[in-house]
Amino acid sequence: MGRMSSATLPQVPAAAGVYPITVRWSDMDAYAHVNNVQYLRFFEEARVYAFKDWFGQDRDLIDEGMLVVSQAIDYLVPMEYAYAPARVAVWCTGNGAASFDLGYAVAGPEGDDTVYARGRVTLVAYDLAGQRPRRLGDAEREALARVSGPAPRLRGDREAARREGAHA
Amino acid sequence: MGRMSSATLPQVPAAAGVYPITVRWSDMDAYAHVNNVQYLRFFEEARVYAFKDWFGQDRDLIDEGMLVVSQAIDYLVPMEYAYAPARVAVWCTGNGAASFDLGYAVAGPEGDDTVYARGRVTLVAYDLAGQRPRRLGDAEREALARVSGPAPRLRGDREAARREGAHA
Amino acid sequence: MGRMSSATLPQVPAAAGVYPITVRWSDMDAYAHVNNVQYLRFFEEARVYAFKDWFGQDRDLIDEGMLVVSQAIDYLVPMEYAYAPARVAVWCTGNGAASFDLGYAVAGPEGDDTVYARGRVTLVAYDLAGQRPRRLGDAEREALARVSGPAPRLRGDREAARREGAHA
Amino acid sequence: MGRMSSATLPQVPAAAGVYPITVRWSDMDAYAHVNNVQYLRFFEEARVYAFKDWFGQDRDLIDEGMLVVSQAIDYLVPMEYAYAPARVAVWCTGNGAASFDLGYAVAGPEGDDTVYARGRVTLVAYDLAGQRPRRLGDAEREALARVSGPAPRLRGDREAARREGAHA
């Protein structure tokens, strides 16, 4: 699954991996648009390909597993079915000792640079045998540093920030 | 689909509808846990039942459609497959002229009050014929007011709030 | 998941287990009918519940796994979405040393005795550790005998039989 | 979605369209193999691309819709997840006035000519406006004739043929 260029996609950092992700006919729901939940499936698919690119020589993350601890998404434009694959950009927006954050953008097929959705996910590196989080290794941290960029700014986050301000 | 009690579920307002949502064997992924994306599917299912309860006599929202504009979720505990349905609580956490926010909590089957995930979604009432957002009607706003409670506080939101603070 | 009565369902043997299977809103496709592939998902769900009932005290089949080797389905009437669960009947139509056949019928919710689809599946009992088929145990054969009935007659089979006749 | 060659795939007629169909990580089930139901999803995907190729200039079938009336599948080898797309062959095995039959074979990615599954489906051309079957047009029949080959021989069919013989 070759990487594509992020050059024309708005607010997608150059370091992002851009993967062609096939939209299935069955991803449409009864409204005949791509169903909102399936975008998270596209994120998952892009992540699978990105991890192979990023950690291919040091597959700790894939072999030992990881847990999704949080995700968020903004839907910008309803997506129609297309025969050509959508393009999903994925990049790292930060990391801690055992966790890291990814940003996503879902664009149309080549020639359609509309950004249909933006999102983020937080993952924890996991020791499947020991059933507990584990520290990221040096090779993993370096791989993530190479694909780093700014976090996408989500509408939902801005509103949550207002609420959090009220709690502070 | 009868409503269940929210009495024992932590941080779920009493006004929430609590719906039994069947977890399918196929909701598990290759790690043999319930897949993270499927929780959003459970949210969708709970919303379908809740809208029938809330707007049953004045079905504008269902008949005219609505768009999901944003959602977010925190995963708290990995969920194992169970034969008995999970319980998904859903309630309104606020509304604007054309949009409203829902909070969710996913608990285990009766007898397992673990909260496995919490989330939120923002929806826009939509005029399918005119292909544009439409104002919520009085009956809709009153129905939402009856099931209102505080927004769930999500980890991801708190971190986003920190980032937003840095932008402010 | 309680068993329901098969009394009113045409061509479903009395020995069949009848399980309420929730149809999800997302099981509809862009034609706003229940998607044809999802019926096989309903079969899988009914099988999971039936195996718990049939083999609950002697869980060899579930613990050791099994493989689906063949399945077939006739679609009789397009199914609309309903809030109440569909009823899926499942029964045994025969077995060999290591394999067995199940018949299925998908009916509407209580009060709707339409049979929307009929199907069959052949499964092989599998030794996951040894990675090979294994013989059915006595308890398994007895459990299957208690839920046995005639195979559903499928349109596709009748046409295939004509073709097979031409090959003979 | 370019057509690929069927030259190396056993029992796949040369006239078949062979489409690269992405297997998603989520197509695996809790046994960490590609789930049996998802193969029917791959059939659906291949059909969508094939219909575009076959009927692209005379899109009656796609625009007016069609109904799946029957399908059957044999699973030959359990499929592991692979990053490269599977190849799904699809061809016509016969037609009537309003219906037609397709055969399928699911092979591995380029370089893996294992046939993992074989199947068939019967479809009825449908007049969505009039809500009834409709006759195939000349252009449709000619398009189908160009991609015709022998029906796959399925294990389940042979056993059903034996049963049908007993009924005769």
The shape of chain A, in one word, is globular
Hey, roughly how much beta strand do the residues of chain A contain? 25-35%
Instruction: Point out poorly predicted stretches of chain A.
Output: none
CATH fold field value of chain A = Thiol Ester Dehydrase, Chain A
**What characterizes the major β-sheet of chain A?**
6 strands, antiparallel
Number of β-strand runs of chain A: 6
Rg of chain A, alpha carbons: 16 Å
How many structural domains in the coordinates of chain A? Answer: 1
State the helicity of chain A in percent bands: 25-40%
Average pLDDT over all residues of chain A:
89
Distance between the termini of chain A: 46 Å
Could you state the order of secondary-structure elements of chain A as H and E? EHHEEEEEHH
| Largest protein-protein interface | A-B, 33 and 33 residues
The total of helices of chain A stands at 4
CATH superfamily of chain A: Hotdog Thioesterase
Summarize the structure.
4 copies of one chain form a homotetramer. Chain A is built from 4 helices and 6 strands.
Any overview of this molecule?
The structure is a homotetramer of 168-residue chains. With 168 residues, the first copy, chain A, is α+β, with helices and mostly antiparallel strands. The first copy, chain A, has one domain: Thiol Ester Dehydrase, Chain A, CATH 3.10.129. Helices cover 28% and strands 29% of the residues of chain A. Chain A contains 4 helices and 6 strands; from the N terminus they run E-H-H-E-E-E-E-E-H-H. Chain A has helices spanning 36-55, 60-64, 138-146, 155-167; strands at residues 17-21, 66-75, 86-95, 99-107, 115-127, 132-133. In chain A, strands 1, 2, 3, 4, 5 and 6 form a 6-stranded antiparallel beta sheet that branches. In chain A, strand 5 (115-127) and strand 6 form a beta hairpin. The longest helix of chain A is centred in the first third of the chain and has 20 residues, at 36-55. The N and C termini of chain A lie far apart (46 Å). Chain B binds chain D through residues 25-26, 28-30, 32, 35, 37, 81, and chain D through 25-26, 28-30, 32, 35, 37, 81. Strand 2 of chain C pairs antiparallel with strand 2 (66-75) of chain D. Chains A, B, C, D: InterPro entries: 4-hydroxybenzoyl-CoA_TE, HotDog_dom_sf. Chains A, B, C, D: This is Thioesterase. Chains A, B, C, D: It comes from Ornithinimicrobium pekingense. Chains A, B, C, D: Pfam families: 4HBT_2. Chains A, B, C, D: Residues 139-168 are annotated as: Disordered.
